[in-house]
Write a structure and sequence with these properties.
Elements lengths: L2 E9 L3 E8 L4 E5 L5 H10 L3 E6 L5 H4 L2 H8 L3 E4 L8 E3 L4 E4 L2 E7 L8 E5 L4 E5 L2 E2 L2 E2 L5 H17 L5 E4 L9 E2 H7 L8 H18 L3
Parallel strand pairs: 3-4, 4-5, 5-6, 10-13
Antiparallel strand pairs: 1-2, 2-3, 7-8, 8-9, 9-10, 11-12, 13-14
Helix pairs in contact: 1-3, 4-6
The chain binds zinc ion.
Length: 217
């Protein structure tokens, strides 16, 4: 298998989407092709890739607003968590694996930022597409303490399930770099360095001040 893996800046709020494909099998997927769906479809077409699925990490508007065009132009089904309000044709469940050519796309259901959030892990290349759960240097926003606790549990699951040398590909360019590794996040991301959920909740509450002190964007 030869890998195609493109991180695409689609616009919006520094949004990232992805083209992930097996060049030999000529099959691939578009992940969160929002704001600029034509660009994603074109990148696949330019490389003679048939899009087998349009995948959403979660159903927030800035991740799904390109669905209609991407689905219409590719004829591919939408794949998203079974609880997503977008009526996905392929209803993903926790632990499910999708084969696309020789790629193995493994889905983990990781609620907190959004109830239908999934991350996508490809074990051959150790690629982790994290959506808005885990960014470079921070984590996804939550509205309530209950959601924040759920997000903490999801993050702990990620830490347990994903190898440290996996690369991390987020849904927004919110960090000092556009991508990371699990090892780097485990040792530098203040939210992953929290000793427990209470420290995590406190950091979330203090974040606007901490962020300013650290000079983050
Ligand atoms: Zn979101």
């Amino acid at each position: 298998m030869r890998l195609i893996f493109e991180q695409i800046r689609s616009g919006g709020d520094r949004n990232f989407g992805y083209l992930l494909a097996d060049r030999d099998a000529k099959q691939g997927v578009l992940i969160d092709p929002s704001y600029a769906p034509d660009l994603f479809v074109q990148r696949a077409a330019d490389q003679d890739i048939t899009v087998t699925h349009v995948i959403n990490t979660h159903s927030h508007p800035d991740h799904i607003n390109g669905n209609e065009v991407a689905l219409g132009r590719t004829g591919a089904p939408l794949a998203a968590h079974e609880s997503a309000p977008t009526s996905p044709a392929v209803r993903l469940t926790d632990g499910q694996e999708l084969r696309v050519g020789s790629l193995r796309l493994q889905f983990l259901h990781v609620p907190g930022h959004c109830p239908d959030h999934v991350v996508i892990y490809e074990p051959s290349y150790r690629l982790l597409i994290t959506g808005d759960l885990l960014f470079v240097g921070k984590v996804g926003g939550t509205r309530t303490d209950e959601d924040a606790r759920t997000e903490w549990d999801s993050l702990q699951r990620l830490v347990d399930a994903i190898p440290a040398d996996a690369t991390v590909w987020p849904g927004h360019d919110y960090g000092a770099r556009p991508s990371s590794t699990m090892a780097l996040e485990l040792t530098t991301n203040p939210f992953l360095l929290c000793a427990n959920v209470d420290a995590f909740l406190q950091l979330k509450a203090d974040w606007p001040v901490v962020k300013q002190r650290l000079g983050l964007r």
